[in-house]
## 1
Amino acid sequence: QVQLVESGGGLVQAGGSLTLSCAASRSIFSINIMGWYRQAPGKQRELVAEITTTGSRTYADSLQGRFTISRDNTKNTVILQMNSLKPEDTAVYYCHTRPPYSWGQGTQVTVSS
């Protein structure tokens, strides 16, 4: 099992940037997939980005290249760099791993217009 703690959320104006960080409670070296999902009010949780142990990345089509995911196996963290933020990016962002299957508690991102 692994515990995940997100940080870095907050309030930002449209066009701004935020960096989210997810700290794992143990080594992530063997965790195949680490990623970020988000859930806006009244909507289903959706994929934002994932990264594998080999560095292969998957992004939601809607992001249009604005976000970048990275992982640091030496620091047991996964980072989501978010640029050119839009009001529709407002959501709770969750860190996720599999396997083992685990979710963080989430961090709120609010983008004002």
Note: The first strand starts at residue 4 and ends at 7.
## 2
Amino acid sequence: VQLQASGGGLVQAGGSLRLSCAASGSIFRLNVMGWYRQAPGKQRELVATITSTESTVYADSVKGRFTISRDNVKNTMYLQMNSLKPEVTAVYYCWSVVDSDDYWGQGTQVTVSS
């Protein structure tokens, strides 16, 4: 399984970004996918997850502002981020698990300026 994240960038507070995560390899085995983020000096934390049946889980801090989705035809997962705040500045990683093995994308930087 290979995961390729994209879509990060620099945006002003209140703006929006959409991250994408393209999956390749043994993608038929992907059930749960998700996004994590890691800010400087902090531990990596869960942002949101989505199952193959599109059941979702969100961190409390992003509920109502972020939306996770997936397109199983395009083998791509998305994270729509709205009403962005400076405190969400971090490297965002896409993630999946197959047979108890974790797979990570390379990360994409999201920077929100005040």
Note: The chain has a mean pLDDT of 94.
